[in-house]
Write a sequence for this structure.
């Protein structure tokens, strides 16, 4: 009973200051979350989706006679002519009654196109040859198929079926289970037509003859469109499985083609995409997969009948590492192949008509291949396919028909029934109708309305001129027909260009509200950092008691105001939802309350012992934040952060020479320069942004050397090659796994803290975990060897899975549980009647370092081999920075003592030396160096999706997304947050009561933790605010979604995860303080 009371008393003695500490930092985190949520809700909006569906009845087409004056461009006559054409045909008679649409996920254009043997990559090119062989006839069409970013499957399927453009933020729906298509699309139009032709109800669940097999994204997006019992979805996230989906596609697609009632068969293979994700684009495993696809293409072409259209296409491409999602040339460069048994009705006349209509951008270069290539935007497939199948073009379409498939020898441009002109006229009319409807919901395109109206009237006038001449097929009618076709095509192309430039919507009121809340959070954090310097006069309990009335009152008023405004929304227009009001009002008023308390605070001012460190920290932070004003500086942030950290460490090394003792004069420069060397070596590991070519050489993945000695793939990724890890780096990772525990023991031996708990942790948890982490990625590399048979590969796959699971259990459960329950790493050594407690002087720091070592071991498993090396070097640098910070605080203490001695001042109580802002800045910058060195950039395509499968063979929620987040932001936010806490606890001896002496004063550990935590979070908050501010400023810049939006998203996630990690680190420090109090009866305030 007494023991329980003692335990409760011990907990209570420590609880008060740490409850205030965690509460204050938690409040700051909530303010960050509120500001980011508000800004995001106004900035990353999705586009307006219009609900109408196109509908029309088949009409017999006759070229009408235009009103008098229309050919001369008279306004009233053009309006009348516009009305006449509006009543005309809205689709064409079907050229095909059936279609087979086969999507090979991540099928890049150069995988289909002919490539000279001297330039070919042996793993990528000239293996899928059936399409190019068929283009020698007039029955096929092969083109570069240009996707719109984001190049994620869900967004590409929307574009391929609706003809609409995506927005950047919609990429997240690909992984969240959202994204059902409610817009008009050619599949639903075709289904309605087939049901009507077969005399079935429009809500019938079967009978239309629509079937699907492959990627289950289709089943999520179009679940009600395919016939009951004729859909075979397969999981799309099991990248380890290269063959199951493709085998299912082969079986069911060929079976459906043999059915007499089949009308539309959609197949979506995943093997090529999975090879890319798993091994990289140019890898030996890609060869048999492309050959398998080639054989199946030939079988499909052989089984086609004269009434069936076959489309083979990629939804997007893949970069050299096999990934996609961004807008680099390789990611957007898919392939398109259209084939029919009956030749296209083109010929020489048709070719001339096509050349007359094609725009200047119809031929584009594609860097893996020489010359320019016929390029078709993906959304152009939608109106093309709709008219070929004889259904209305979807209402929201912005694509332009592909002229090659409508040009005709029998009805060329100039004849009244010219099929190409009819298609372009229907297409332009549909786009014009859509833009008129869109203008009723959004003013996005208003600045371009006059230009588009001029283009539309020009097309109407040229069409009227053609109509007057085309009745008799006079010689000049051909030129008039081509002019009209050109005008309609120019209108649709210009419309989509303007839509791309302004498609993202912005709610200015929410953007401003978010920026204001973020700015308020920065100011509050800065004041809390300043207030923590008064820890000797203002305990944490007193700080909490002082702040509580302001915060509680402000929050209550904010909630009341939010409720009042929510109720007033029915009477007064308020540009915020109820949830947004619930975030905005309390956040602003709480920030106002904190700043009011700061203004009224009359605590004595204390002159900073380190004014230069504070000024330097502010300067470095300002330079980093200001760099986002330039797209070039933002693109080269990896080099900038390394340069800033190098400048800080060199400055700290130089200051070390002025230390008051010889030991510190020697040790401090060595620590600073040693850290700089470690981080400079770590930074040699990198991936490159597309924009950094040719001035950046990637080194994160293994080099891909072609047999002729040349480096393969896009020059933007020169030397990068596939996403195959270097086996030599796996060997280095093994060495690191052995070295790190011994290095940590050596560091702890300086304070005699390497015994007991530390010995057990390093021997039985940290080292085995690191060895398993290295083994996991070695097995991953071996699994990709083309010399292994399938049995060996299956064995390695199981070995990987169990190794990953074992490591996760070891560090995530056993390691954390042991740390929570284990005693302090102390050893009592007796010498007769005397006893020495080894490890006492660093009992807090050593215990916390053990936890950070466990977190490092987890991140080590989730980092690929080159990243493991970089992460280990950065982790050692983090520990050395803690030692350097302790030395710098020793300098403050010694200097203060010398000043008091010189002044013969024996009454002044020494102030505790606190970590400086420059120390927090150093830790935050180290996080950015680690982020870039572990293979990341502020780009979508740099995300390392492979780590989602550590310990699993399929996507497993919530672990797979969590692993991806930890892989990217563990080095940036999580490990540095714990490192910032380590700064405070390192080499801090507990205050231990001694017999027959007055009790020692309580320790101000919580105040020091508040200072370091707020300094660290201030750095991330200012960067997030700067990224948001410049993203807003450049919101109409062409590079917005390539540069500033990804950087804002990176900064926002880094800040939120830094908040969470800091709260967890402070709770862990609370646990350490509880252990110290239990052993030494140390008091905290």
């Amino acid at each position: 009973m007494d023991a329980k009371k003692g335990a409760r008393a011990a907990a209570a003695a420590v609880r008060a200051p740490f409850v205030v500490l965690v509460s204050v930092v938690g409040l700051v985190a909530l303010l960050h979350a509120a500001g980011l949520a508000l800004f995001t809700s106004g900035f990353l909006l999705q586009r307006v989706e219009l609900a109408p569906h196109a509908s029309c009845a088949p009409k017999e087409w006759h070229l009408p006679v235009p009103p008098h004056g229309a050919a001369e461009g008279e306004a009233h006559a053009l309006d009348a002519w516009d009305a006449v054409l509006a009543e005309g045909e809205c689709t064409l008679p079907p050229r095909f009654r059936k279609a087979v649409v086969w999507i090979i996920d991540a099928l890049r254009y150069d995988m289909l196109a002919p490539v000279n043997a001297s330039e070919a990559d042996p793993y990528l090119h000239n293996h899928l040859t059936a399409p190019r062989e068929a283009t020698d006839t007039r029955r096929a069409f092969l083109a570069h198929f240009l996707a719109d970013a984001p190049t994620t499957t869900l967004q590409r399927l929307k574009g391929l079926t609706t003809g609409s453009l995506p927005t950047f933020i919609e990429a997240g729906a690909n992984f969240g289970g959202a994204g059902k298509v409610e817009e008009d699309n050619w599949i639903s139009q075709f289904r309605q037509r087939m049901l009507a032709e077969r005399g079935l109800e429009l809500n019938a669940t079967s009978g239309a003859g629509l079937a699907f097999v492959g990627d289950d994204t289709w089943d999520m997006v179009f679940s009600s469109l395919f016939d009951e019992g004729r859909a075979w979805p397969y999981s799309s996230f099991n990248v380890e499985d290269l063959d199951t989906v493709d085998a299912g596609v082969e079986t069911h697609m060929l079976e459906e083609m043999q059915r007499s009632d089949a009308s539309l068969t959609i197949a979506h293979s995943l093997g090529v995409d999975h090879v890319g994700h798993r091994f990289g684009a140019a890898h030996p495993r890609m060869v048999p997969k492309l050959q398998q696809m080639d054989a199946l293409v030939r079988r499909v072409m052989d089984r086609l009948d004269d009434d069936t259209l076959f489309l083979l296409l990629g939804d997007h491409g893949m970069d050299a590492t096999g990934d996609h999602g961004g807008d680099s040339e390789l990611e957007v460069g898919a392939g398109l192949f259209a084939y029919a048994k009956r030749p296209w009705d083109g010929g020489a006349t048709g070719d001339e008509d096509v050349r007359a209509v094609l725009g200047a951008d119809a031929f584009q270069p594609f860097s893996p291949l020489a010359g320019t290539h016929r390029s078709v935007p993906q959304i152009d497939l939608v109106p093309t396919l709709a008219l070929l199948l004889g259904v209305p073009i979807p209402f929201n379409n912005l694509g332009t028909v592909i002229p090659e498939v409508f040009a005709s020898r029998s009805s060329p441009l100039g004849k009244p029934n010219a099929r190409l002109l009819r298609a372009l006229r229907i297409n332009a009319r549909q786009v014009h109708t859509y833009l008129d409807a869109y203008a009723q919901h959004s003013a996005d395109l208003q600045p371009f309305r006059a230009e588009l109206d001029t283009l539309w009237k020009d097309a109407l006038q040229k069409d009227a001129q053609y109509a007057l001449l085309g009745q008799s097929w006079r010689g000049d009618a051909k030129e008039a027909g081509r002019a009209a076709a050109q005008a309609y095509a120019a209108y649709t192309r210009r419309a989509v260009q303007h839509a791309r430039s302004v498609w993202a919507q912005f709610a200015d009121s929410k953007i401003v509200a978010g920026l204001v809340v973020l700015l308020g959070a920065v100011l509050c954090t800065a004041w809390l950092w300043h207030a923590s310097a008064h820890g000797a006069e203002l305990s944490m309990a007193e700080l909490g008691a002082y702040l509580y009335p302001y915060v509680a009152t402000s929050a209550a008023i904010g909630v009341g105001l939010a409720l009042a405004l929510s109720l007033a929304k029915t009477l007064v227009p308020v540009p915020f939802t109820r949830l947004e009001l619930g975030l905005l009002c309390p956040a602003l008023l709480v920030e106002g309350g904190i700043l009011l308390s700061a203004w009224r605070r009359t605590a004595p001012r204390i002159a900073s012992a380190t004014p230069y460190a504070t000024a330097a920290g502010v300067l470095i932070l300002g330079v980093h934040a200001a760099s986002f004003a330039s797209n070039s500086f933002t693109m080269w942030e990896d080099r900038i952060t390394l340069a800033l950290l190098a400048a800080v460490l060199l400055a700290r090394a130089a200051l070390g020479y002025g230390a008051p003792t010889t030991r510190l004069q020697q040790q401090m420069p060595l620590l600073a320069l040693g850290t700089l060397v470690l981080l400079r070596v770590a930074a040699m590991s990198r991936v490159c942004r597309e924009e950094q070519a040719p001035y950046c050489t990637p080194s994160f993945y293994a080099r891909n050397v072609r047999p002729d000695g040349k480096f393969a793939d896009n020059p933007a990724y020169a030397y990068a090659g596939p996403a195959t890890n270097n086996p030599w780096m796996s060997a280095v990772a093994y060495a690191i796994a052995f070295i790190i525990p011994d290095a940590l023991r050596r560091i702890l031996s300086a304070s005699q803290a390497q015994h007991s708990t530390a010995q057990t942790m390093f021997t039985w948890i940290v080292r085995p975990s690191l060895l398993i982490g290295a083994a996991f990625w070695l097995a991953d590399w071996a699994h990709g060897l083309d010399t292994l048979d399938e049995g060996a590969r299956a064995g390695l796959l199981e070995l990987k899975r169990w190794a990953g699971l074992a490591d996760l259990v070891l560090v995530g459960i056993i390691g954390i549980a042991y740390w929570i329950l284990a005693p302090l790493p102390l050893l009592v050594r007796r010498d007769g009647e005397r006893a020495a407690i080894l490890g006492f002087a660093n009992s807090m720091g050593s215990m916390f370092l053990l936890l950070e070592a466990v977190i490092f071991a987890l991140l080590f498993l989730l980092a690929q081999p080159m990243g493991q090396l970089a992460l280990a070097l950065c982790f050692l640098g983090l520990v050395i920075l803690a030692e350097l910070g302790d030395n710098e605080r020793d300098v403050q203490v010694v200097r203060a003592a010398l000043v008091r001695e010189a002044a013969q001042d024996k009454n002044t109580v020494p102030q505790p030396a606190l970590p400086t802002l420059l120390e927090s800045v150093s830790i935050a910058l180290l996080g950015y160096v680690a982020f870039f060195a572990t293979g990341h950039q502020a780009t979508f395509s740099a995300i390392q999706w492979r780590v989602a499968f550590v310990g699993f063979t399929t996507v497993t929620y919530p672990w797979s997304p969590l692993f991806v987040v930890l892989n990217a932001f563990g080095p940036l936010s999580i490990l540095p947050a714990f490192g910032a806490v380590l700064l405070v606890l390192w080499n801090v001896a507990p205050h231990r009561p001694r017999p027959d002496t007055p009790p020692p004063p309580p320790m101000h550990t919580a105040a020091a933790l508040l200072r370091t935590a707020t300094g660290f979070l201030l750095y991330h908050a200012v960067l997030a605010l700067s990224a948001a501010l410049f993203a807003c400023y450049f919101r109409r810049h062409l590079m917005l979604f390539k540069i500033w939006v990804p950087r804002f998203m990176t900064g926002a996630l880094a800040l939120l995860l830094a908040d969470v990690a800091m709260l967890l680190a402070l709770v862990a420090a609370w646990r350490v303080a509880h252990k110290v109090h239990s052993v030494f009866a140390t008091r905290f305030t």
Observations:
- The two ends are 27 Å apart (CA to CA).
- The CA atoms of residues 320 and 722 lie 5 Å apart.
